[in-house]
Amino acid sequence: MNKINLIIGREYMTKIKSRTFILLTILGPILYLLLIFGSVFIAKLANKGDVDLVLVDKSGLFADDFKKESKFITQIQNLDPEEIERAYMEEGWESTTVYIPANIAETKKGVEIYYKENPGMSVVDKVKNIVNNKLRDVAMLNEGIDKAVAQSIQSIDVEVETKPISEEGAKQGNVKIAAGLAFGSAFLLYFFIFIYGSMVLRGVQEEKTSRISEVIISSVKPFELMMGKIIGNALLGFTQFAFWIILATAGSMVVGAIFADSTQGMLQEMTQNNPQMQAGMASNPMAQDSISALMQAGADFNVFETIFYFIIFFLGGYLLYSSLFAAVAAAVDGQQDLQQFMLPISLPLILGIIVMPSVIENPNNPLAVFFSIFPLTSPIVMMARIPFEVVWWQKLLSVVLLIATFIGSVYVSGKIYRVGLLSYGAKPSWKQMFKWLTYKG
Amino acid sequence: MLRIEGVSKSYGTKVAIRDISFEVPDGSTFGLLGPNGAGKTSLIRIINQIQPADTGKVFFNNKPITEDLVNQIGYLPEERGLYKKMKVGEQVLYLARLKGMSKADAVREIKWWFDRLHITDWWNKKVETLSKGMQQKVQFIATVLHKPSLIILDEPFSGFDPVNAEIVKNELLRLKEDGATIMLSTHRMESVEELCDYVAMIHKSEKVLDGKIADVKRQFKRNEFEVKYRGEKLDTYPAEALQILHEGYDEEHEAQVVHIKMANDEHTNEVLTHFMSQRQVIGFGEILPGIEEIFVNIAKN
Q1: Does residue A130 share a domain with residue A219?
Q2: B34 closest CA partner among B241, B289, B206, B216
Q3: B220-300 fold
């Protein structure tokens, strides 16, 4: 026991002092946020950039609406379809052309977009929206409906509240927040299992390639060495968690304080300058505390339950995968061979991420239930289901199976690890590794 | 010190060692010999409790070996290395503590050894900045730091540069004088003769021979003698010489050299008289087989 403490201690101390670890701890949250917001930002960025548009509007209804659209730089011309075609073919036109026929208001069809370079879905959608909105306005006007009335009708937007029933009765629920939480925590878990699992992997690999393993295991049992590494890295992970949780709490308090002030200020300013809005606000108390409603909804998701399961599934998944990683790293000698064995082992984890969107779409579909109980994918998939309230027996079954599997995998890996550490040279096959399991001791 | 009784080990269907028994006397320098792949490393790993034997037992000071007793062994494996990113001092300290030393003891001993091998200022150096030869010094210190009563070195001189090999050799001799028992495993048998007083030979997983080197050599002597004499080469050799194995000239001594084989060693005087009556003899002696020669002969049969 004393020796395993030494191993854990070395594993922990050498890594926590290493520059890469400190850097990762500090930059980790930033990278994670960048990843999430980055993808949103990139999506927005992809939509940016103004589009040169030639509008050929035979009906004469749409010129203003197109000019109002900030994304389009609209140039109005009066051409026939044949002339448009010729312009592209003979004059080398580059810009996209929208053709709207004269009788559009009656036929409601015949809008065409000509282009050389595909303008993309967003441009097509925008054009469609402009045309549709205008035609609706026109239609309503024709029926004698006032524009203001029409707008107020169109702006009807009923909030649907989801109220899952549990033992304590109906609760406030919010599917969107649940989905966000599911995505966030499952992804985080995936990253953590991979990050800390590969720390174990690299550690074992280092010991193998630097040929120090045999020196060490002449003093300690291979199993102690493996477990020492796994536990040491888990502690390292928890240190990082703790740091990040403190950081997140402090961060959200600071951000919360700033936002609370500024939103309050903004609301005041807006209401003061706009008596109409003031009236609207008064009549609609929902809007006033929409922020607090959001926070309330967040609180209704049992944060403690989520954190509890996060830790359970992290530990289970991490122990399971890091022991497998350790076994493979011990068995092969060299980077290239390692890659070859890593892929099949990490496939289930990746599978978990692949099925996640469908799990969030419908958390109780049979596939989601299966993957959330199957121990190789359960850490990720169950984590994605938990924000949506999972039946207790499924959670229990999932956790029990995961524990049973990691005990099994630690046992099997320990055996492969022990033999693997001492064999150098030729790369073993799966069959050989399987045979190692039968070796005595 | 160490007694091995009927130890066997197989990996799957491949037999690594079969029913090996021998004893390493207290205070001896013991050579475990055999070509690559004979099973030396497997046996050493069993002694160190790195892997279990299928059958048989290992006794350390007459007690079945246990994990605690393994702490009294200093083992330098054939595949040896260090953590590249760790500092030299920390690393040796870690290895010493894994052997059960207290921190204070370990630090004191490390300083003593670092001073002795003139590497006092290495404590804070990272291992990766050391040359291979320097790393070997550190590995050796880590092996013997906890004052093991049995030191096992697997292929100790492969990879050591000559300077370090000499240092290690001298330190080993000193440790032996202080009472340590030393066990060397090697396939380079000539290196054993000057260091070891006992040997065991393993060939194709089985022990083929063991005992005191002097006894082994005597057991395998072939009654071959060497005569050195000055002057012209003799035309006739004594009748006791059954066979002339070699004739040559030793320029250093300006002497004719002849190796003769006899039926036994009873008539050396007659042979010597034959030479002395005709030439000036400057040397006469029995040729004992080298360890390697003995091994090759055994392996052939």
Answers
A1: no
A2: B206
A3: Alpha-Beta Plaits (3.30.70)
Q: Which residues of A touch B (CB under 8 A)?
A: 3, 6-7, 10, 14, 18, 206-207, 210-212, 214-221, 418, 422, 424, 435, 438-441
Residues A213 and A78 reside in one and the same domain = no
Could you list the pLDDT tens digit for every one of the 301 residues in chain B?
899 999 999 887 888 899 999 999 999 999 998 888 888 989 999 998 888 888 999 999 999 988 888 889 999 988 888 988 889 999 999 999 998 899 999 999 999 999 998 888 888 999 889 888 888 889 999 999 999 999 999 888 777 778 888 888 889 899 999 999 999 998 887 777 778 889 998 988 888 888 998 898 888 888 899 999 998 888 888 877 788 888 889 888 889 999 998 888 888 888 888 888 888 999 999 988 888 888 888 877 7
CB contact under 8 A, A212 and B70: no
User: Is residue A34 over pLDDT 90?
Assistant: no
Nearest to A328 by CA among A217, A198, A192, A439: A198
Residue A126 DSSP label: H
Is A106 in the same domain as A230? no
My answer on whether A65 and A120 are in the same domain is yes
Residue A216 to chain B, least CA–CA distance (Å)? 7
Asked if residue A179 and residue A141 are part of one domain, the reply reads no
Please indicate, yes or no, whether residues A138 and A184 belong to a single structural domain of this protein: no
- Is the distance from CB of A291 to CB of A364 less than 8 angstroms? no
Q: Give φ, ψ of A317 to 5 degrees.
A: -65, -40
Could you tell me if B226 and B284 are in contact, meaning their C-beta atoms sit under 8 angstroms apart? yes
Encoding tokens for residue A203? 């550690």
Q: Which of B15, B46, B50, B144 to mutate to test the interface with A (most CBs of A within 10 A)?
A: B50
Residue A168 domain flag: no
DSSP helix/strand/coil, B158: coil
pLDDT in tens, A200-227: 998 888 888 888 888 888 888 888 899 9
Give the range of the structural domain holding residue A104, as residue numbers without chain letter.
Answer: 52-148
What lies within 8 Å, CB to CB, of A285 at 6+ separation is: none
Structural fold of domain B2-218: Rossmann fold (3.40.50)
Instruction: Tell me: do A413 and A323 sit in the same domain.
Output: yes
Q: Looking at this predicted complex, what is its ipTM?
A: 0.80
Sorted by where each begins, the domain ranges of chain B are 2-218, 220-300
